[in-house]
Amino acid sequence: MSSDSLDPVQWRQIEELYRAACDRNAADRPALLATAHPDIRDAVKSLLAQESAEGPLKGIAEDLLRGDTESDLEGVGGIAVPLSPGTSLGRFTITGLVGAGGMGAVYRARDTRLDRDVAIKILAPHLTSDEAARRRLAREAHTIASLSHPNIVALYDVGEDGETLYLVTELLHGRTMRELMSAGPLPEHTVIDLGIQVARGLAAAHGRHIVHRDLKAENVFVTREGVVKILDFGIAKPIRIADSPGTNVTSAGALLGTAGYMAPEQLTGDEVDGRADLFSLGVVLYEAATGDRAFARATRSESIRAVLFHDPHEPDPARVSPALARTMMRCLAKHAAERFQSAHDLAFALQLVAGAPPAAGRPVESSTPSHGAVTRRTALTAGLAVVVTGVGYALGRVRSAPRPVSVHQFTFRHGHIGDARFAADGHTVVYSASWDGEPYRIYSTRLGSRESRPLDLAPADLLAFSRDGTLALSTGRPAIHGFKPLGTLAIVPFAGGKPRSVDANVSAADWGPDGRTMAVVRHEGTGARLEFPAGTIVHESVVVLSPRISPDGRRVCFFSNWGTLMVAESGGSARLLSDGLGRGGDCVWAPDGNEIWVSSSESETGAGATHMSLEAIDLKGRRRVVHRFPAYVRLRDIAADGRVLASSGSLRYSVHGLRGREHFERDLTVHNATRVGHFAADGRSVLLWDNHERAAKLGGALLVLRALDEAEAVQLGFSHAPLVLSSGGDWVAIGTSAHSLPRFVFDSLTLMPTGTGTPRTVNLPIQFERRVADPTGRSSWSDRTSDVSADDRRLLIPHGWESGRPPRAFVHDFQQGWTKPITPEGITGPAVLSPDGRAVAAMEGSALVVYSVDADGRRELPGGAESGLPARWSTDGRSILLVEPNGANARIVRRTIETGRRVLVREVRLPDPAGVTQFDLWVSRDGDAYTYTLGRRTDNLFLIEGLR
Amino acid sequence: MDGRHQVQQALSEVARTGRPALDGLLPALYEELKVIARRHRRRERRNPTLNTTDLVHEAYVKLVGLNRISWQNRAHVLAVAARAMRRLLVDHAVARRTLKRGGQMQRVELEADMRTAERPLDQLIAIDAQLQRLEALSPRLTRVVECRFFAGMSIEETAQALDSSPATVKRDWNLARAWLNRALSRQLP
User: In Å, how far is A255's CA from the nearest CA of chain B?
Assistant: First the structure.
């Protein structure tokens, strides 16, 4: 029986019978039903059969309203009757419909008074539903109207017609970027050009404290002439809301915008500024260049997750130049602080990518209308590498007129710069670089030319270039040199000849103006010593960086550790000039000899720095900021006329790891200055430390515990000196010290619980360092440090010393409280502790030696010279795992203690060896898991003119 | 006419006649729900607790205020709001389906999500069609479905709104649901 044939009378019968049946239990129902008319009975039976079924009614209405099915109630608003041609709105007459979207419908109209065609946007009612929103829109519209920028659509008027609010704008002919991209990715020069124009428009708006908040391909209009017009500033809100607290402008604005384009801070409802628009622009450019939406996913909520947590794929280098890729990826940084800090900076960086020099001294936003700009010739070099630098702004100084500062890039390769110097003529530059993972070589170039020529020399790094044309080189210095770039000092005339070796174990040197005197940093034992002149020690420290002799030859300036600038008279003693100087490590005398210029960053050695400053310090220690760069910049040299030689790019430390039979390494990086502090013996977790800019501001490196097979990371606290992660995983030891000791020298351990609990400090009768020197010289300075026994009772300190004595390895016993020397004095370097804590293995020259902790035992492993470094004692205690570093490759080898037998466990290769400065590999006891720190500096040389 | 004014008029009519004044209330509630739903969708789309009940109550509070009318009348208004909710959702579903089939509004960025939405849209429209048939047989059952299904009210709330008893509402709801499920399972794939 079909319900179509039912009438209300029959239905009432059905109802009554159904209810009666419901009131009885199932067993009594047949008897009840039997009394009814067959039609009624069948109907009731089929209804009763539905009782247990869930049916399609469940939850549909709710689903429709929820975000995950992306119910678009917009459609309801869209039902509003469209305005037909001929309709009048104030002095405007509608002549046609242009389009419709979330913001409302757009019509073409005629301004009858001014006799011109305009576009009219009727704002969707939800934008104007209450008086406060209308007022806000009207006010913003007026601000936008006052912007009058060629890259922002011109707003002529704001009108009201009853409840309808409408905007009158210039009528544009052309297409949106969405339409332009519909056929696929755009040519790179077009992407760059459009990007520059959008960035300029944004810069103008941000200058008036207006953030767009919904920048996307649909909102970037490109006229037929190739001029970008940013649309829909309508929902933008001023950065600071002046409204009374009663209006909820902020909350209403929180989720305006389009998922997949919105910056993470916008999605999470955090404070939003212009940098959010730069993120959105990054998404647009990424899509334009690659054809892929950086964060597009199947559903909105997945897109949101992608924006918040996933980095977009690096664009294919075959299709997108590394320079553009870098610039885009920088826009897409999750943290606003890691993006370009202003639309100006981005416009500038894009100009550099395009090879177009910026208009010197001219505010970027007041550019000439860029008609025909899409077809602008863009001299894009295929090998164009890192170009992220910019003209910033002088800090805290008011100047009457902006100074023209220009920046010219003149190397364009993938790798890093060793050092660079002007020749006395001021036009020739000599530099060393390690390109594409090759060893350092010396090159020379004439400024103004794009060509560099390699000098006819064996691989070497540049240390100094004298006025009369003699090079001081470091030979045998590996490109992957970590922190102590030791080599042999050699000198050779620029004109040609055979290098003459002068001194070993030298990390830095400089020539005096006479071309004979030298300042030399020599390494011996625990530290470095500065000799000036050579042979006369003027300073000793753990690290001495960047010695530079003054133009008059009487003084030398240098960094004693990062951030501590000192100066010493020839043959005299050193005095402190400025401490805590950011964390700079490069210094150069200004031509007049009255100031020392340094490049400094907030982060340790500039790792992960996105901002660096050029500062000048006079001989009384007074500081001034010469220039701020929105990039990682290192000062290399200053010419007699004040032109500056600098390198710019990035320095990044990342951590990767692999466990068991997995095929792909995991990226364990926390920020962009992450290093391995210690690798758990079982290979399950890794202690990481990250001293990126923000952590450095908070007073140290971030300590993070991370499992190799989980995304979870636990933040433990701050410390510069992670030593060891206990075998049980329940505590972490860090190095601590009284503040009278130099930085990075410690005399106590603090055990921090990884869970709840209070830290405990253990004072030691020795001083020690976290890092150890690599005696093989192939990695020069190893980041690998302490080790711990399986029962967590004993801790190995590979590089400690009793006051005034040479360094050696020590073992501390937590239970019995003693600290014992293990290796002979002078024997230090990477070392491992046996799982039972009763033996230590370390290198004595090229021999691997096992020392007994409890007795005076010493036993050299059979099997000849060792080419690796001890990395871990095996689980069964019978063999030792060693790492053999070899440039961008490393082999993990197992050596049996009893027989000396050698077995290759695994080989780890870096896919891209270019620019690598550090590659420190750690391995688990079973040899199945490994993790490594990868330091990569990629930079190129720039000439900066106009700095004073 | 201002929605609130409309509602006040309708409410005084309720007070005068003792019967819900559908004609005045329904359009006002419909408009209000639309505004609220749209705002919710924009602002709190990730809020998993958002449901139709909240919308109906919010519309009510917005239009009527909390203490303006008697409890009895409040229930009546809610019943009408449930009806408005039904209309809103169905209108929306129809509009959305039209969009999908070549309507002129361009919402490119939503395309990926529409796939998942299509089935519920069709179901909703089908339910509405069956409800129109049920209305001819039993308006009372239809009201129960509107309150329970479209406005997400509880049995007790529905009983108050429809001036009925919870026991009756429960039985009506079971019957209506059974009827709808049967009708829909014949029609839906």
Answer: 5
